[in-house]
Amino acid sequence: xxxxxxxxxxxxxxxxxxxxxxxxxxxxxxxxxxxxxxxxxxxxxxxxxxxxxxxxxxxxxxxxxxxxxxxxxxxxxxxxxxxxxxxxxxxxxxxxxxxxxxxxxxxxxxxxxxxxxxxxxxxxxxxxxxxxxxxxx
Length: 137
What we know:
Number of helices: 5
Number of strands: 5
């Protein structure tokens, strides 16, 4: 992916990327504590996402979440605030990546069909899983 910016602190990391071929704007984020979570929400707000609902503690304790802004940013946020979250990190990356691929597919009119192997979707799943895993590590 083409990196636009990466912001890294001890308690959070945010990366803005452009996805090749589709030119989608992708934001990967993770946080390690509540202060880091608030910084991630500030970034979301800066790029046009209404974050009031996300300030609820039930969002903070999620393993991860994926949203799309009205300005067509696809955002994946992961919670790395404790050992329990690390134990399910691969599962969470896969789960949120699925939602990310759905969002990108919907945005660009890509369809899933039973008439072929959906190689375009398989490519996105593999590529984005690899990129999100690299971002976290």
